[in-house]
TrEMBL record:
An MF annotation (GO) of this entry: DNA-binding transcription factor activity
The protein's name in its UniProt record: HTH araC/xylS-type domain-containing protein
InterPro entries: HTH_AraC
Organism: Fodinibius roseus
Positions of the HTH araC/xylS-type domain: 111-178
Signal peptide segment: none
Length: 190
């Protein structure tokens, strides 16, 4: 039987640990992993992907994506997560449309329409939620507020303070003093 390389698009891969888990599942089921990145894995397979792989991924909170639109929405999310979490943050204003068009090879207006239909919010609204989650995470790690402000492109500490008041009805110092970190997992944002 011929072996083929299969590209699998996977929802909810948001961190390096997710890549590790997906790779481990594939290898345990006998697939050879050729490449892996957030949102996708390339495996060598002699047959169509087994239902067992789908079920094992779902047990760990992942989902195999079937449609092109689902894949595009997940690619947008992965690119934004990558920008905020794994590329050192955003030191200067960014053009999301440009970044996403380059990363998906799709016009931004089409991306925006597909994303809104699937998620019920705009890409900018999702990015703002994601950025705020990252800010909460960094604050909970006791990083200096000025560093957080700069690395996430808030421009000024006052803007970050305003986000805490607007989204959590508390100021930053109350958040820091709180025992509850009010965090939301990235796969649950939208």
């Amino acid at each position: 039987m011929n072996t083929v390389n299969c590209i699998l698009h996977i929802k909810n891969m948001v961190c390096p640990r997710c890549k590790y888990v997906v790779k481990q599942i594939c290898e345990e089921l006998g697939y050879t992993v050729l490449a892996i990145e957030l949102g996708q894995v390339v495996i060598k397979s002699q047959e169509p992907v087994a239902e067992q792989l789908k079920l094992r991924l779902e047990e760990q909170g992942f989902q195999l994506l079937d449609s092109d639109h689902e894949c595009l929405v997940e690619r947008v999310k992965v690119l934004l997560i990558d920008l905020l979490y794994w590329n050192g943050g955003i030191k200067q204003p960014v053009n999301l449309a440009e970044i996403l068009e380059m990363g998906t090879q799709t016009r931004f207006d089409k991306l925006e329409s597909i994303f809104y239909s699937a998620c019920g919010c705009t890409i900018q609204e999702y990015f703002d939620l994601l950025r705020f989650e990252r800010a909460k995470e960094l604050v909970s790690y006791h990083q200096h507020v000025q560093c957080i402000t700069e690395s996430l492109g808030y421009g000024a500490c006052e803007r970050l303070e305003l986000e805490f008041r607007r989204r959590l009805n508390m100021d930053l110092s109350a958040f820091i003093a709180s025992e509850n970190n009010y965090r939301i997992s990235l796969d649950a944002l939208v």
